[in-house]
Structure prediction request, 351 residues.
Amino acid sequence: MTSDTATARRASTPAVGARRRVVVLAVAVVAVLVSVVLSLSFGSRPVSFDEVVEGISAWFRGEIPTDIGAIAVQSRIPRTTLALLAGAALALSGALMQAITRNPLADPGILGVNTGAALAVVIGIAFLGISSPFQYLWLAMVGAFLTAFFVYFVGSVGPGGTTPIKLALAGAATTAALSSLISAILLPRQSVIDEFRYWQVGNVGRAGWDTIGVIAPVLVVGTLIALLCASSLNALALGDDVAVGLGVPVGRTRIVAAIAGVTLCAAVTAVAGPIGFVGLMVPHAVRQVAGTDQRWLLPLSALGGAVLLTLSDTIGRIVGSPGEVEAGIITAFLGAPVLIAIARRTRMKAL
Prediction:
């Protein structure tokens, strides 16, 4: 896409006022609070709102409540926290990937980054005997970065360079190949299968403060880097020529934003498994209501992702009661129609 064409497309897009964006932000914050309350309320034992308040208050005071409902609430706080962090990170990762590639299909799951991180962790457990969240994290990051580089390389080969369709096809083929390798490693090893049976689908059910403590610093750094890239990503949306004219280092911006996006995805995959479609759905939904300004799109995507994954986890517990349906299954069920809708659009060459 030429810079003139990109500029024309932005010019033809209706402007979104600051007041509307503030309203969307307020709604998103309220939605996060509601999703937290719902997540703490529903599980194997539903609890009342008063018990939720009692459980949270006792947790802040460092006390163990005597009421069984409040105790259940406290046991769900780590799970809810991980769902919020993971959802925000995945949505932010997807928004970054869509911005730097100008590809409406860019998403950690579709581009194979999730699967690459998962394969690295599976290899580590099956052959290296790793068991700590810290080891999971670094292996997942190695797998995610290698996969991202490979998919981008394959998608850029041939006439026309990198295009949305070529990247999506390269990601789909890579995901299929890596998934087959994961199955080949798991099937002969029953102990590894038991370890990854739920993790491989995408699940936040085994959250703990130790795992959250390992990934939280990585997520904070990745998020800060992403937000600092927002203005430069806005310039990239106008085309590389215009961005260079505005003094934006195009290559460095893409590399830094890509590192932030892959790091966010890898950290989540290390502790929750390959959860797909969050990074695809949320940025598109936010773009419809808040416009394309990355300074608003990125933080709103993070809030939307937190809401989506937390509600998906809650729905999974309600639908599968007395057991549960993994959050990754719920997000896939919700995300498949979105992917179909995007694929049916005629103008898919760039955002």
Notes: Confidence is low (pLDDT under 50) at residues 1-14. The chain has one domain: 3-45+77-343.
